[in-house]
């Protein structure tokens, strides 16, 4: 009977590490770890980035501001600023990003609802780590005041985060239009 020598476990762990790396690489290539997932089809538009921490040989930590159009409500855009980690983990896209995200949504044209929606429907979703963490922008309607309400937050598989931000968009007439649609008319249920 052959017992495991001191060299065989090292070889076994090396082989297991290679297989794990190949598996993760294959999943990444298939898009499982893809970043943004918009309820529509467009990726967020990068407005600008600003470095916050200098790193000599790897990418800097940054704040990045992005814009998305609400895929269901024409005439509304949301801007969010999120930290992006630099360093080696950030360069390879495996860093877990922090939950600090700010949000501002605005009416930029006449508002038109494309379909009915539920309170808390996801407008935009983006992964903030390889597997377990994601950031979401959700939409609601304050029917009494005719105001769209947007909230950004992050969650994890096991626990959520209390960090969040809220922005509102009063549904107003645009240009020569006399009336504005009522967001409450487009709520499901």
Label the structural class: mainly beta
Number of strands: 9
N-to-C span: 70 Å
**Uncertain runs:** 2-6, 9-13, 15-41
Helix share, percent: 10-25%
Average residue pLDDT: 77
- Determine Rg (CA atoms, Å): 22 Å
- Order of strands, main sheet, comes to 1-6-7-8-9
Order of H and E elements: HEEEEHEEEEE
How many H/I helices?
A: 2
The shape, in one word, is elongated
Largest sheet features = 5 strands, antiparallel
DSSP strand (E) fraction?
A: 35-45%
What is the strand and helix layout of this fold?
Blueprint: H1 7-29, E1 36-38, E2 45-53, E3 61-69, E4 73-84, H2 87-91, E5 102-113, E6 121-127, E7 133-142, E8 147-156, E9 160-170
Antiparallel strand pairs: 1-6, 2-3, 3-4, 4-5, 6-7, 7-8, 8-9
């Amino acid at each position: 009977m052959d017992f495991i020598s001191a060299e065989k476990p090292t070889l076994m762990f090396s082989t297991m590490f290679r297989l794990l790396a190949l598996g993760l690489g294959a999943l990444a290539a298939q898009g499982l770890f893809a970043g943004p997932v918009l309820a529509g089809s467009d990726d967020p538009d990068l407005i600008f980035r600003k470095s916050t921490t200098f790193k000599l040989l790897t990418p800097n930590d940054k704040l990045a501001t992005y814009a998305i159009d609400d895929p269901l409500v024409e005439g509304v855009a949301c801007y969010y600023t999120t930290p992006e980690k630099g360093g080696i983990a950030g360069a390879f896209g495996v860093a877990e990003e922090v939950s600090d995200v700010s949000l501002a949504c605005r009416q930029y044209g006449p508002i038109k609802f494309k379909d009915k929606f539920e309170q808390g429907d996801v407008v935009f979703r983006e992964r903030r780590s390889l597997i377990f963490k994601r950031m979401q922008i959700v939409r609601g309607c304050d029917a009494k005041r005719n105001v769209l309400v947007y909230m950004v937050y992050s969650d994890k598989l096991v626990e959520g985060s209390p960090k969040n931000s809220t922005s509102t968009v009063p549904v107003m007439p645009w240009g020569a239009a006399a009336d504005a649609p009522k967001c409450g008319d487009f709520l499901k249920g």
